[in-house]
Every structure is written in C-alpha cells, then in structure tokens.
Write a structure and sequence with these properties.
By secondary structure, the protein is an all-alpha fold. It is 54% helix and 0% strand. It is globular, with a radius of gyration of 14 Å.
Length: 134
C-alpha cells in the first residue's frame, strides 16, 4: 500500500481490537491517529488512541510495545499539522507531510535523544522533547 491510499482501518476496528495486526505498520498508526483526531477533540483523541493501543498490545501479549511519548508526540504533531493544513483530506495530508512517513528523515529523532526514548519513563508517560528541532 502506498502512502495516501487509505489503509483498511477504522477507529472502531482499533478500539475493538479487530484490525489486521499484520498490516498495522507505521503508516497505519499515522492514519489511525489522523482518524481519531478527525473524530474527537485533541485530548479525547489522545486518550482513546492511547487506550486502544495499550489494549491491543496487551491482547497480543506485548504490552511493552506501547510507547506513550512516541504516541503522544505523533498525535500532537499530526493535530498541529491538521490545524495548519489547507485541506483535511488524507491524500493531501500525506502529500504535505511526507516526513511523518519517512524512516530516512527520523522526525522523532530531531526532538528526542535515543536514550530518552529508550527509557521506561518515556514508555510509560509522555515526556517533553530533550532536543531542539533542527
């Protein structure tokens, strides 16, 4: 699946834990965050998305995979960019925010050190960035 194509996921499928986890890659995470932000106010979207991810990782037997700082960071960044966007459709969002999907650009690494992200504190609770964005 290419970026800008709507992944086959929904808010309901994540909250119910019925999505295809084999297809739940980084792009799907971004898409679902975008959907939650489309459907709910920011604080509710973060709370619901985080809870759904935690339930999913617990169900899959990998609760340690959930990372609060990364989840919140992307939710806040996506919300900020949605607010600034001329258009709120998924294709436009993808086109205008390619850095959110590129492993080469490592957007989170511009804000957070590897040590901070590897910490248990960062996994369990949202921490502010420890680097200045370049």
């Amino acid at each position: 699946m290419s970026v800008a194509q709507r992944p086959p996921f929904s808010v309901d499928s994540l909250e119910a834990g019925t999505l295809d986890v084999d297809s739940f890659d980084h792009e799907a995470h971004v898409y679902l965050a975008w959907l939650f932000l489309e459907e709910f106010p920011l604080t509710e979207a973060i709370a619901r998305f985080s809870s759904a991810l935690q339930r999913l990782t617990a169900t899959l037997g990998v609760p340690g995979r959930y990372h609060a700082t990364i989840t919140w960071f992307f939710m806040l960044l996506i919300a900020e960019r949605r607010e600034a966007a001329a258009s709120n459709d998924w294709s436009s969002f993808c086109r205008d925010n390619a850095d959110l999907f590129s492993a080469d650009q490592n957007i989170i690494g511009r804000y957070y050190s590897e040590d901070l992200l590897a910490s248990e504190r960062a996994r369990g609770t949202f921490l502010l960035p420890d680097k200045l964005a370049a």
